[in-house]
Each structure stands twice: as structure tokens, then as C-alpha cells.
Recover the amino acids of this structure.
């Protein structure tokens, strides 16, 4: 009996020593918990890996600070709408990460898509859920003429610029064209009366007004381009982990959040598409997102979006672009057809995703829990083919991924005053 | 790096691997889904399926970036080692495990001489196993060069 008891005690002691050693190891050498490949992957997901703002050769004024100041004023100006009540900021609210918290955006009417955030979009070659615009300035011009968003038109906007922004505009873009005799309301819009008035204008007049319109977009883009994400707790966590530093409350992840991160880059494979410092591959995928809760017209996503992008009046290759022939590589080499474009939508950045319910292109999923459950379940697509396969996550794993996603929240950063309305509209 | 046997065409190997991977996915779910078959040949010089050509890919900057348009040079030779300049080359590819093609439509934009062909518009937006296929047609005949990439 005695030897057995001794052996048991020895074994117990050994187990205790091993357990404490393991615990001490886990607590003391944080960075060692990640393999070299994981460390490289983690680094690639942080803002430290983002790199400088890519040039926008299609917008000569993209980095012009006077253009950005003008764009800031235009972004918040409700006079740039058919009703005088809608500005870009009506849906892209700075205090809500430049989105509106609604399933479907509401301008002068209700749209068929969810408002997308603005920060960091200068890094994306494609704008909108279906990528139908290939620059920030081309994107900005879409809602301004949409019957359900701003509801205005080109001659109206030219008159607004002449009345309220002449000096600021002309300092950046040069002289405004003469607007004498120009209809108050005309443009290539859905409204038949205003569209007919536009058609009656000589082509040269249409072109000079359209150039003013394009410049409005370029000024707004110069502003939007300066709105960026600042580090989140996740960024600080990775920085401390990789440097082998002890975590502070500002950098520490809870056990669940850390487990969620492991799932994010491992078993759940979220990182396959949500990669890079903005956690998006800037591409388009059908992930079998359910149909919207309200009946909307059929929406085939990138299938139509890419056709619109290629043919767009304000494309990189168009006459209002400042780009040279070799500059429009994304447009030049984009995939224009194929089954994988059907109901494919842009991978959104996951930065600040925790404060941005509801989710998906028409706000179909009300919470992050629903989103994670969707990717776990991988239902068949309503149409087209979903790229997802079931993940077979446990309820705890789903909860951990959700917990991790909240660590991606951080403040926005922009030049002074740019995250609030301008003092003088 | 493992060298593919010249008697077993790469695409057939890839197809077998895809079929196997698909079967494994059915059985075991996504954890295995994400992993590429282990016996893939990632060599940058490959012999074409019917053995008519040898091709070497040279990505600009050597390492293949993720999420950025970049340029490749494809060096093309006959099986006998003669550089091939006059060729029609179509570029195709995708992620076999995801059922989608390349996110861009890369093309040969210039025949640079000495068997070198400049390929523009290459882009890989996701991590994982990619396949890039060059369908080559020249006086030597029509054949396909298949390259595996791991991002």
C-alpha cells in the first residue's frame, strides 16, 4: 500500500508542477502562444499594416486640402437635395460610423440597400454593395441624383454651387460656367420632366454642367478620403502580443475574445474574405444572405453592378475622370460575367462592425449573433450559389467569435473638425 | 519542393485533389475545407498537361501579394527548350475549394520576346489554394499550363 500511496502522491505533485508551469507559461509569454504564421497573419490584420492612402488618379483634387474643406461643407449641406432636407450626412452620420443604423437607407424615399460606412473606403477599388462605382467621387454622385436618396439634379446643384459656394469652388476648380438661362431643375434623372429639360440642353452645355457635378463628387471624395479608422483594442492587443509586452486594459482581450480571434483566423475561416488591415478583400461574394424581410425588386448584386461600373459616366475611364489610360487597372481587368457574380456583394470592412447593426446588404440580419449563426449554418442561397459551407461551431464558439468582433471597434480619425458638421454650411 | 511526375498531368491531379477535398468537406465540414490538399506542387516551373511546353511564372517583386493588382511574366518554352514567342495565351484560374474563378480577368498584354509574355491584372483577394491556368496555342500545338499557388 505504502509504495502505491507514494507513487500517487508523486504523480499528484508532478501533475501540479506541470499544471502550474503550463499556467505560468501561458501568462508570461503571451506572444509565444501564436505560431510564426499566426503572428504574420495577425500583423496583417492591424492598422499598422494598412499602408499609405492609395492615390486616386481619377481625381486630380483627391489630395487637395481646399477641395476637402469644400467637400466637408457639401457633405453636410441639405441644399444638395430635391427637398432641401437630405445631405450625405443624413444617412452617413459621423456619430454612427457614417452609417444610419437602418436596414434600408432613407433619403427623400426609401432605398433598397443598407447604408455603408465611409471610413477607409479610399482603400477600396469598388464602392457600393455591388461595386457599381470605381471611385469615391463616382460613388458620391450616385445618391445625389437618385430619386429616393437626394432626389436632386445637375442644374439644381450647379445653381446651389453658384449661389453658396462660388468662391470656394472657383478657388479649387476654376471658373464656374455661366448659368444664365439654365433650367432650375434638369438632369438625366428618373423624373420625366427634368429629364426632358436636360435633353433639350445642347450637348456642350450638358457637358459643362456635368463637369460641375463631377467636381462636387471630387470635392466630397477629397473630404471622405481623409476619414480613417483609428486603432481598436484588437490592434493594441496584437501590437502588445507581437512585442511580448504585458497587456494593459486598453490592449487586453478576454479569454472569450481571444478564443474568438483564434476561431476567426482558424476554424471559422472568417479571415479568408475578411483579410488585410480593413478586414475586407474588397471583392464580391455570394454568401447565401437571406432575402430582405420586405419585398424588394430582384437584386442580383455584382452581376449588374459590374456592368454599371464598366459603362458608368463617371468611371475611371470616362471623360470626367482625370486618369490616364494606364491608370484604370481595376476596371480594365475586372471580371464582367460569370455565375459567381450572381447575388455577390462586397465584403464589408469589419472595423466598428459591433456598433453597426443591422447587417448585410439590405439589413437582413438584426444582430452579430445572427450573422455568426448564418455563417455557421451556411444556408443555400436564395439564388445564385453560396460560397459558404457549414462550420459546425458550438454555441460557445459562436459567442466567442461575436465577442471578438466587438474588439474591432475604435474611433474614427480625420483632420480637425471633419467629424462634425462645418461651422458655416 | 515536390516534383510532379511527368506521366501524371497536373490538371488530373488537381481534379482528383478537388474531388477528394470535396468528399472530405462533405464528411468533416469547414475545418478541413479550408486546407489545400497536401500533395500539391507549388513549383513555379511546370510542364504542360500534354507535355508540349514548359512554363515559368515570375510574379513582379517575386512574392505574390494578396489583394493587390500586379504583373507576372510567363516564360514559355517548348519541351525541347526553345523559347516560344508567337503564341495565343489565355489566362484562367480560381479557387477550387470555393467554386469561383479569379477576381480579375488577367491578360497577356505584351509579348516581350525571348519566350517572355507579360501578364497584367493578376490579383488574389483571398487566402488559400489558388490555381492559375495558361491555355497556350502556338505552332507547337495547344496545351495548358497549370500552376498551384498558396496565399
Amino acid at each position: 500500500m505504502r509504495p502505491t500511496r507514494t507513487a500517487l502522491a508523486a504523480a499528484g505533485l508532478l501533475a501540479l508542477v506541470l499544471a502550474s508551469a503550463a499556467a505560468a507559461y501561458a501568462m508570461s509569454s503571451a506572444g509565444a502562444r501564436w505560431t510564426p504564421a499566426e503572428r504574420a497573419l495577425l500583423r496583417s490584420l492591424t492598422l499598422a499594416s494598412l499602408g499609405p492612402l492609395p492615390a486616386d488618379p481619377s481625381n486630380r483634387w483627391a489630395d487637395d486640402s481646399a477641395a476637402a474643406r469644400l467637400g466637408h461643407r457639401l457633405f453636410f449641406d441639405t441644399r444638395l437635395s430635391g427637398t432641401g432636407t437630405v445631405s450625405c450626412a443624413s444617412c452617413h452620420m459621423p456619430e454612427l460610423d457614417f452609417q444610419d443604423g437602418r436596414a434600408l437607407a432613407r433619403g427623400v424615399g426609401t432605398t433598397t440597400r443598407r447604408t455603408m460606412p465611409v471610413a477607409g473606403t479610399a482603400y477600396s477599388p469598388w464602392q457600393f454593395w455591388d461595386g457599381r462605382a470605381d471611385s469615391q467621387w463616382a460613388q458620391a454622385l450616385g445618391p445625389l441624383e437618385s430619386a429616393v436618396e437626394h432626389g436632386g439634379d445637375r442644374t439644381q446643384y450647379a445653381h446651389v454651387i453658384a449661389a453658396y459656394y462660388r468662391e470656394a469652388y472657383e478657388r479649387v476648380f476654376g471658373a464656374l460656367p455661366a448659368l444664365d438661362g439654365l433650367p432650375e431643375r434638369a438632369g438625366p434623372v428618373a423624373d420625366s420632366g427634368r429629364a426632358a429639360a436636360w435633353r433639350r440642353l445642347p450637348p456642350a452645355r450638358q457637358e459643362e454642367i456635368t463637369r460641375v457635378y463631377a467636381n462636387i463628387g471630387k470635392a466630397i471624395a477629397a473630404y471622405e478620403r481623409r476619414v480613417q479608422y483609428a486603432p481598436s483594442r484588437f490592434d493594441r492587443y496584437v501590437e502588445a502580443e507581437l512585442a511580448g509586452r504585458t497587456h494593459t486594459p486598453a490592449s487586453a482581450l478576454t479569454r472569450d475574445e481571444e478564443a474568438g480571434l483564434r476561431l476567426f483566423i482558424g476554424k471559422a475561416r472568417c479571415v479568408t474574405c475578411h483579410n488585410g488591415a480593413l478586414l475586407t478583400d474588397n471583392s464580391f461574394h455570394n454568401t447565401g444572405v437571406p432575402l430582405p424581410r420586405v419585398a424588394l425588386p430582384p437584386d442580383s448584386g455584382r452581376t449588374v453592378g459590374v456592368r454599371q461600373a464598366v459603362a458608368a459616366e463617371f468611371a475611371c475611364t470616362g471623360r470626367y475622370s482625370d486618369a490616364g489610360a494606364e491608370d484604370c487597372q481595376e476596371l480594365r481587368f475586372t471580371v464582367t460575367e460569370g455565375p459567381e457574380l450572381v447575388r455577390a456583394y462586397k465584403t464589408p470592412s469589419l472595423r466598428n462592425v459591433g456598433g453597426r447593426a443591422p447587417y448585410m446588404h439590405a439589413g437582413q440580419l438584426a444582430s452579430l449573433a445572427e450573422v455568426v449563426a448564418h455563417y455557421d449554418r451556411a444556408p443555400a442561397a436564395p439564388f445564385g450559389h453560396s460560397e459558404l459551407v457549414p462550420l459546425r461551431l458550438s454555441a460557445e464558439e459562436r459567442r466567442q467569435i461575436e465577442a471578438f468582433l466587438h474588439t474591432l471597434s475604435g474611433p474614427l480619425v480625420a483632420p480637425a473638425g471633419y467629424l462634425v458638421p462645418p461651422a458655416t454650411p | 519542393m515536390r516534383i510532379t511526375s511527368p506521366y501524371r498531368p497536373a490538371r488530373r491531379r488537381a481534379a482528383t485533389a478537388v474531388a477528394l477535398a470535396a468528399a472530405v468537406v462533405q464528411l468533416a465540414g469547414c475545418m478541413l475545407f479550408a486546407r489545400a490538399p497536401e500533395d500539391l506542387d507549388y513549383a513555379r516551373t511546370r510542364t504542360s498537361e500534354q507535355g508540349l511546353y514548359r512554363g515559368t511564372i515570375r510574379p513582379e517583386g517575386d512574392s505574390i501579394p494578396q489583394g493587390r493588382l500586379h504583373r507576372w511574366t510567363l516564360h514559355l518554352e517548348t519541351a525541347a527548350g526553345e523559347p516560344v514567342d508567337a503564341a495565343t495565351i489565355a489566362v484562367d484560374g480560381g479557387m477550387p475549394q470555393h467554386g469561383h474563378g479569379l477576381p480579375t480577368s488577367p491578360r497577356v498584354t505584351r509579348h516581350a520576346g525571348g519566350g517572355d509574355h507579360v501578364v497584367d491584372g493578376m490579383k488574389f483577394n483571398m487566402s488559400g489554394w489558388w490555381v492559375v491556368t495558361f491555355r497556350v496555342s502556338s505552332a507547337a500545338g495547344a496545351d495548358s499550363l497549370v500552376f498551384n499557388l498558396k496565399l
Notes: Residues 10-28 of chain B form the longest helix (19 residues). Chain B touches chain A at residues 25, 29-31, 33-34, 66-67, 69, 98-107, 120-121, 123, 125-128 (CB under 8 Å). Chain B is about 15% helix and 40% strand. The radius of gyration of chain B is 15 Å.
